[in-house]
Design brief:
Layout lengths: L4 E5 L3 H13 L3 E5 L2 H10 L4 E5 L1 E2 L2 E2 H11 L4 E5 L4 H9 L4 E4 L4 H25 L3 E4 L2 E4 L4 E3 L5 E2 L3 H11 L6 E2 H8 L11 H18 L9 E4 L3 E4 L4 E3 L2
Parallel strand pairs: 1-2, 1-3, 3-6, 6-7
Antiparallel strand pairs: 4-5, 8-9, 8-15, 9-10, 10-11, 12-14, 13-14
Helix pairs in contact: 6-8, 7-8
Length: 246
């Protein structure tokens, strides 16, 4: 499974350093930010799996930033604050925070909350793609999530198995993002134990599934244009995807 990427946002340099060191020792990749502009820059630069956002950022409000991000981005946010009254917590939850942790906190509690939010988001994302009813257009192809129909550029319907369709949905939801075999397996199987490494047979099953999908959507499966191998990582859906309501 790929290493989760966390963004620690705090205007206190010492607090940023302490949280970063602790979370990196726990196995996470950690970036830091001190203000709204830094947050946007990190989000534009690449994938962020969770934001730890301080409520008081100098002249800026973490609660307001959380609310704005929730309207634009689908990224989990844990608010961190020395303000721990019930109404302050509720203000955070009302703007869409996934959790709220009061300072000073036990580092082990912070770690448990981080793990829980990431696990919950992965599970909900796995279920969401199953319910998706959007229409996707990609490289001349289309997939109708409501009717569960895949059409080739020439208009002919292409039959996919349930598992091939599941893989296609995962790819359509993550264009241009390299996905590991573990990430694909976790999304296809919501009952899979979080964080468990793939067995050799499971990894081969993902490779076989990718090969089957390629045989149906690629002009030349041996030299794929849509579903490419990302060396040292896994696979990437290297085509733009346009989404419209079903």
């Amino acid at each position: 499974m790929s290493i989760p990427r966390l963004l620690v946002v705090d205007d206190d340099a010492e607090m940023r350093r302490m949280m970063t060191e602790f979370l990196r020792k726990a196995g996470y990749m950690v970036m830091t930010a001190a203000n709204r502009a830094d947050i946007e820059r990190h989000l534009d630069d690449g994938r962020i799996d969770l934001i730890l956002l301080d409520v008081m950022l100098g002249d800026e409000s973490g609660v307001e930033i959380c609310g704005e991000l929730r309207h634009k981005r689908d990224v989990p946010i844990i608010l961190v604050s020395a303000l721990s009254a019930d109404h302050q917590r509720m203000a955070g939850y009302e703007v869409g925070a996934d959790d709220y942790i009061a300072k000073p906190f036990n580092p082990d509690l912070l770690l448990a909350r981080v793990r829980a939010v990431i696990r919950r988001r992965r599970r909900s994302a796995s279920l969401a793609y199953r319910r998706n009813t959007s229409v996707y257009a990609f490289g001349g192809w289309s997939y109708d999530g409501k009717k569960d129909i895949v059409r080739a550029p020439d208009g002919f319907q292409v039959a996919l198995s349930k598992r091939e369709t599941g893989l296609l949905k995962v790819l359509l939801a993550n264009p241009h993002i390299p996905l590991t075999r573990e990430e694909i397996a976790d999304t296809l199987d919501v009952t899979r134990e979080d964080g468990r490494a793939l067995e050799v047979s499971e990894g081969r099953a993902i490779d076989v599934l990718v090969g089957r999908l390629r045989s149906k959507i690629e002009k030349n499966p041996k030299e794929p244009d849509l579903l490419r191998t990302e060396r040292g990582v896994g696979y990437v859906f290297s085509v733009d995807v346009a989404v419209s309501d079903g």
